[in-house]
Structure prediction request, 376 residues.
Amino acid sequence: MARIIVVTSGKGGVGKTTTSSSIAMGLAQKGFKTVVIDFDVGLRNLDLVMGCERRVVYDFINVINGESTLNQALIRDKRCNLLSILPASQTRDKDALTKEGVGKILKELSKEFKYIICDSPAGIEQGAFFAMYFADDALVVCNPEVSSVRDADRMLGILSSKSLRAEKVREPVKEYLVLSRYSPERVETGEMLSVDDVQEILSLPLLGVIPESSAILNASNSGTPVILDEESNAGQAYSDIVARYLGEDRPQRFIKKQKIGFLSKLFGGR
Amino acid sequence: MSLLDYFKRSKPSASIARERLQILVAHERASITQAAYLPQLKQELLAVIQKYFNVNEESVSVNLEQDDNNEILELNVVFPDEEANKNQPEERKGKYNARVNRTGRR
Ligand SMILES: Nc1ncnc2c1ncn2[C@@H]1O[C@H](COP(=O)(O)OP(=O)(O)OP(=O)(O)O)[C@@H](O)[C@H]1O
Ligand SMILES: [Mg+2]
Prediction:
């Protein structure tokens, strides 16, 4: 049975697609058959971030409408053959998504894949609704910034009242916090909400902190999920997140300002 | 040094953000949970009213209004049949409503 994970936020541009692509790649690298679905109908971007934009033939909506089979629409990743991408439609209107259509595809994917990652669009409209509706787990991506935290809380309210699990009064969706674009330096000077602040306000378990990092722009420029950039702090942060999600106990990193002390200089630490 | 600089120094903006968010989030969560019980409240009220009066679902409306320090639960029942209207003054015929005010926040 597959596990359906929604990557959501409410607010736009906080790092959902970046997170979806890296988590999906990380889970596949760990040996799990994984598919990542772009729910951003009309504004697809996951294909670009994953570097497969030129291989898109059919999309999510084509499959819902029966214009192509699921296998025709799925794109197998060239770097990791356990990973597939289901792109969003670029042209159709947003009403093209239906609860029955999405549910049917997820059911079909569940037979073949272990993890299904749903990259939610921003907002609380149709696309975001269907991305979260069937979820078992939710990664709530948030930036340490007031409007992002507020929107994350709105999203938590929606998950706990409008999801299928809520409707059927099943065990609730498991929610985790991914705090992205974090600058320990700015937290230290009191300009930025700290990880403790955000965690306390949202009262969510922390899956991990992604530091503000230039590696992310580089990665998306070249169509490589940043988790594959093992040298970068953001790549390592995403590896930690995948490991923690799978139950490994890894201490939190990238929360404190990096101090280049005498000893770390001596031993080549960064 | 201006007065503004003084305040900036004494209170870093992140702690202002935290306080504002704590208040806002608590407030928004409360109003969302309140809204969530309304449909059920309406169903239960309707069931009780139907024990005594011949009314259908459309004739009962339940509203929750809020201002800064009051919550008003308003229940409107429209009675279609003559029986229920018999003892009502002319202007009240066909309509009965009750207001439950609750002062103060939870
Ligand atoms: N940790 C980070 N450090 C620096 N830049 C980042 C970080 N995370 C995301 N970004 C940048 O922020 C922008 C938005 O990221 P992304 O597309 O992942 O957000 P999104 O939540 O999917 O956006 P949308 O709501 O539009 O779907 C991108 O340009 C990305 O490179
Ligand atoms: Mg996105």
Observations:
- Residues A 9, 12-18, 40, 121-122, 180-181, 210, 212-213, 216-217, 220, 234 surround adenosine-5'-triphosphate (ligand 1) (CB under 6 Å).
- Strands of chain A lie at 3-8, 34-38, 75-76, 83-86, 115-119, 137-142, 174-182, 206-211.
